[in-house]
Every structure is written in C-alpha cells, then in structure tokens.
C-alpha cells in the first residue's frame, strides 16, 4: 500500500492520534473534554482518535474515576492508556551476571531475573545463561514472548553503528565479532537492539537516576573496568564507530613512560592505572611498606580488594588514604579532559568503586576541580548495579514510542493509513488488542 502524503486525511488522523495519546499517557485518566482542551483539538476529533486508539488496543474507557471517588449524575467517561497493551525487555550482560527486566509500556516492572555468568567459558554458555534468564523472566511476568514489543541489550564492548554486532569485547569469552542481535532475536518476535553497557547506564541515570534534572551528562563506570557514557543535549553520543567514551585507553597518567598497548585482558593504560585492580595492587604494596589497617587486613584476610582499601581510608587509616588519593588523582587526569571538552551539566560516577560512598566523591572532586575551569557537579550513581538494565528499558520504550505507538514523527509508508495499519505492517511487531 502506498504511503499518504503529508497533510492527507490519513496522515492527519495519525497526527491526531499521536497528540491525543501523548496527553493520555501523561495522566492516570482524563475526560474527553480535558483532552480536547489540552490538545486544542475539537471534541469530535478527539472522540474519533480515541475510538481508533481503543480499537487498536492502546487506550481503554472507564465509567468511574480510578481513585474511586463517586460523582453526582451520569458518570463521565474517562480514558486511560493501556500500559499492559505490550511489554519491553531490558537485558544487561556482564562477565559475572546477566540481568533481565520485563516492564509494561510505562516502565513498571513485571519481573526481574538475575543469573550468574561467572562459569560461562565461551559465547555459547553465556548466551545459554541469558536465554534461560529471559525464559524465566517472561514466565514470572506471566506473559507470552509475542507480547514483547522491543528488547534492548547492554553488553561490554564496542558496538557497530548498525547496533547489532559486538565488534570488540575482550572482557567476555568469545564475544568479539558477535552478531548478538541475531543470536537473541531467536528468543523474541520483535526488534532486538544492542548497545554498549555504559551508554545504557547514562540513559538509566538520566531517566530514573542521579541525572534526571540534566540535559548533558557524563557517566563514569569505575570498577573492574573503566569507561564513560556520554549524553549530549538530550541524545546519546556513540561516536562515528561506536567507540565514544572508551576512556580506558587514554594515556594520561604517565604519557612519557607508560605502556600504551592493550594487555591480554583487553585493558588500556588508563584502565590499568585506575580500575579496581590498580587500587588492590597499590593497597597491597602500601600494606607491605607501612603498618596500620591495610597491613592488618592483608595479614588476616590474605585478600585486600578495592573495597577494603576504601573502607580503611574512610575509617581514617593514613596509608589507605594515600592510596585513595593517588588513584583519585589519576582518575581526575582522565576525567578532566572529558569535562573540558563536553562541559556537562553533571558527572555521575558509578561502578563498584562508587559503592564506597561520598568519600570517593570528595576525593575525586578535590583533584578534578583543580584541572577544570568550572565546578561541574559530581554525583554518585543512585541506580547502582541496575543502571545498565534501567537504560536498556528506557531504550526499548523509546523504540516502541517511535515505531509502534503513533508518533509525531513522519509516518512510515506502510503506517500512514493509521495506527492499526501501522502495527499490522511493522515487521516483528505485535498488535495489542483490548
């Protein structure tokens, strides 16, 4: 079927549907007159759009207010968005754990499953763990996979511009040059989007985390790995090759003497200098040279990890404080150039080391403000381990809003005749019914 031209009756109906649905989605329930007043459309136009939206399954009518308040006279007919008309799935794949979250179309959680991936020795075992987690999450949510309208997946590594192939991911076994979208599409009947995990983390913090009030955000993952997610003027910045934010490969700590090569674990010089492994190494060296809490921890536990170093510093141990100061000074040298170039509204620090709390933030702030021109706010992640999967849900919801729900963007040729036609002709999309 040929597409309708802009301004045609079919295109206008689509635009009216988009206006009406956008207003309905912002409220719990509205009367027809309230929708007409907000949109500026006539009551007959709103009524027609609502009938079409109801037929497609996107809205439902109520005969009484959802809060249970009684009204005199004939009850007003109220309308609300059917958030359970479909579902989205967010997936976070990591070296130690895979998380799968299922939500309705308003982002309300229906099920969450977390499964260990530490024992996965190749891509097949890792994919099997992810698929098992997906099946369990859908079962817990009590929904058929055909009700899933979009899936977004976060993974370490550089993703090709088409958003389907993991080009480089040395941290996961057999994960390089992997068409992850194709592999996971077998588990679904809808679009599957692949994104770098730190990119999704910045989306998550912008949506529901520490940066909801910001328009330009830098998220720093600081744990076993180091990376940055960049959100500029309301849009995720991926870079021409999908490699934006790979700050682990910076050479700023010791540019004249550092080994700039990538090591066998795929880490660059900056990552080797500031990640959790570096904190642990510095802590062990300091424990051997000095008495105090670090030395006692190393002697009694035999295992001095980054968390123990930061905890000892927080308790006032002078040696641990020196280690923390050294590492945060190094981090500031990599973070400052990023801040100077982008000038973000806020920088959010997440990852395992951020769990050490405000003391980490204070130490980073002290060093980074010496190297920048303006005092950009620094905040700790409020989503923690859920930042990536939250960003995945946000990405999947945005996909539904652009390609399944009626949108104010130019309709696609097969969808310009109205919402029902749009859903029926979208490849791998499910059409909701009441």
* Helix amount: 40-55%
In the CATH scheme, the class of the largest domain would be: Alpha Beta
Side by side, the strands of the main sheet go 6-5-4-7-11
- The fraction of residues assigned to DSSP E strands is 15-25%
Structural class: alpha/beta
The helix count comes to: 14
On the 0 to 100 scale, the average pLDDT is 86
Write the layout of secondary structure elements.
Layout lengths: L8 H17 L4 E2 H8 L3 H14 L2 E4 L15 E4 L5 E7 L3 E8 L4 E8 L6 H19 L6 E8 L2 E2 L5 E4 L9 E2 H6 L5 E6 H12 L8 E6 L3 E7 L2 E2 L32 H6 L1 H14 L3 H9 L4 H9 L3 H25 L3 E5 L7 H11 L9 E3 L6 H17 L15 H7 L9
Helix pairs in contact: 1-2, 1-3, 2-3, 6-13, 8-9, 8-11, 10-11, 11-12
Summarize this structure briefly.
40% of the residues lie in helices and 18% in strands. It has 14 helices and 16 strands.
Report on this model:
The chain has helices spanning 9-25, 32-39, 43-56, 123-141, 180-185, 197-208, 269-274, 276-289, 293-301, 306-314, 318-342, 358-368, 387-403, 419-425; strands spanning 30-31, 59-62, 78-81, 87-93, 97-104, 109-116, 148-155, 158-159, 165-168, 178-179, 191-196, 217-222, 226-232, 235-236, 346-350, 378-380. The chain is an alpha/beta fold and 434 residues long. α8 (276-289) crosses α9 and α11 packs across α12 (358-368). Helices cover 40% and strands 18% of the residues. The model is unreliable at 410-434 (pLDDT under 50). It is built from 14 helices and 16 strands. The longest helix has 25 residues, at 318-342. The protein has three domains: 9-81 and 409-425, Winged helix-like DNA-binding domain superfamily/Winged helix DNA-binding domain (Arc Repressor Mutant, subunit A, Orthogonal Bundle), CATH 1.10.10.10; 85-204 and 387-396, Nucleotidyltransferase, domain 5 (2-Layer Sandwich); 211-382, Nucleotidyltransferase, domain 5, CATH 3.30.420.40.
């Amino acid at each position: 079927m040929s597409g309708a031209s802009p301004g045609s009756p079919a295109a206008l109906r689509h635009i009216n549907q988009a206006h009406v649905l956008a207003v309905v989605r912002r409220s719990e329930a509205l009367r027809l007159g309230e929708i007409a007043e907000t949109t500026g459309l006539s009551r007959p136009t709103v009524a027609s759009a609502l009938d079409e939206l109801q037929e497609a399954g996107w809205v439902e009518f109520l005969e009484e207010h959802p809060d249970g308040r009684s009204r005199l006279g004939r009850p007003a007919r109220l309308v609300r968005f059917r958030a359970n008309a479909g579902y989205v799935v967010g997936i976070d794949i990591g070296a130690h754990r895979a998380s799968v979250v299922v939500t309705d179309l308003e982002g309300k959680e229906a099920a969450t499953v977390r499964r260990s991936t530490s024992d996965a020795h190749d891509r097949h075992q890792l994919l099997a763990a992810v698929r098992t987690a997906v099946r369990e999450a859908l079962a817990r949510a009590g929904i058929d996979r055909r009700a899933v309208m979009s899936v977004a997946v976060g993974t370490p590594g550089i993703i090709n511009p088409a958003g389907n192939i993991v080009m480089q991911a040395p941290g996961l076994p057999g994960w390089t040059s992997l068409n992850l979208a194709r592999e996971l599409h077998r588990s679904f009947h809808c679009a599957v989007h692949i994104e770098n995990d730190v990119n999704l983390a910045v989306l998550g913090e912008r949506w529901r985390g520490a940066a909801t009030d910001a328009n330009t955000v830098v998220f720093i993952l600081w744990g076993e790995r180091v990376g940055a997610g960049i959100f500029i003027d309301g849009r995720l910045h991926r870079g021409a090759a999908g490699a934006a934010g790979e700050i682990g490969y910076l050479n700023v700590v010791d540019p004249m003497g550092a080994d700039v090569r990538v090591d066998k674990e795929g880490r660059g010089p900056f990552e080797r200098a500031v990640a959790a492994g570096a904190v642990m190494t510095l802590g062990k060296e300091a424990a051997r040279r000095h008495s105090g809490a670090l030395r006692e921890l190393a002697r009694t536990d035999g295992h001095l990890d980054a968390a123990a170093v930061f905890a000892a510093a927080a308790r006032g141990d002078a040696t641990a404080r020196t280690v923390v100061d050294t590492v945060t000074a190094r981090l500031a040298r990599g973070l400052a150039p990023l801040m100077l170039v982008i000038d973000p509204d806020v920088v959010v620090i997440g990852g395992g080391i951020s769990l050490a709390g405000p003391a980490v933030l204070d130490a980073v702030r002290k060093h980074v403000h010496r190297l920048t021109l303006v005092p950009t706010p620094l905040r700790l992640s409020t989503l923690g381990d859920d930042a990536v999967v939250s960003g995945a849900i946000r990405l999947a919801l945005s996909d539904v809003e652009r390609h399944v729900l009626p949108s104010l963007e130019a309709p696609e040729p097969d969808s310009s005749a109205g919402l029902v036609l749009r859903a029926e002709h979208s490849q791998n999309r499910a059409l909701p019914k009441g």
